[in-house]
Amino acid sequence: MARKGITDAMNLYHLRYFVTLAHLEHYTKAAAQLNTTQPNLSYAISSLEAELGVSLFEKDGRNIVLTKCGKDFLSDVEHSLSILDSGVLKMQLIGRGEGLIEIGFLRTLGINYIPLTLSSYLKTEDGKNATFHFHDGITADLIPMLKDKTCDVVFCSYAKDEPDIEFVPVAAQDLVLIVPKDHPLADRTEADLSETLPFPQIFSTQEADFVPLWTACFKK
Question: By the 8 A CB rule, do 38 and 31 touch?
């Protein structure tokens, strides 16, 4: 059966050992730098060579040098480890609240709230290495973007019947009732919404996100 990928014999430690030995060309020096024993290093290289079916090193006096196969393998291993290390670092940055953060928000919040909030975050220790990619829209568009992981967090209005979403209140918006001068409620400084029901009203649709509370929401 054909072998695929990295096997138990060819693990990441063995590959990193190989790269270090390839650059130092000396078992004792490489073992010291890797903080391992020379027998462990020799076993790792022997395991790699047995797995690959080729010799990676050959003796050159007291030192060792890469074979032709070793040189070709070194190039591929260094490229692969570079990609892997980059991916690990990216995940670690995200885990610490750094790296690239995808943010969705209501267009009205893009005027003051989002710039001020993110500016404050960038000044903190957690946010010093963070960068942002923005998506604006209405709540009906932002919630699906959170669900499909296009966004890491969205700032929108509260949405009902979303058990998989955690909504955290972050800001409130005052609702203002505007009436003609001769209206029965014109001399009032405040009114309960129930008092407005007998009168014709002009109001925004639900899709307009005109609600008294803004929230930040996260996928549970």
Answer: yes
Task: Quote the CA–CA distance of 66 and 30 in Å, as a whole number.
Answer: 14
Give 120's contacts (C-beta < 8 A, 6+ positions apart). Answer: none
136-167 confidence digits (pLDDT tens): 988 889 999 999 989 989 998 888 888 888 89
Same domain, 62 and 154: no
In a domain, 56, yes or no: yes
Whether the CA torsion 101, 105, 108, 114 is positive or negative: it is negative
Which residue from 106, 210, 105 is spatially nearest to 153, judged by alpha carbons?
A: 105
Query: Which residue reads 């290289």 in tokens?
Result: 45
Domain count, the chain: 2
The structure's pTM equals 0.49
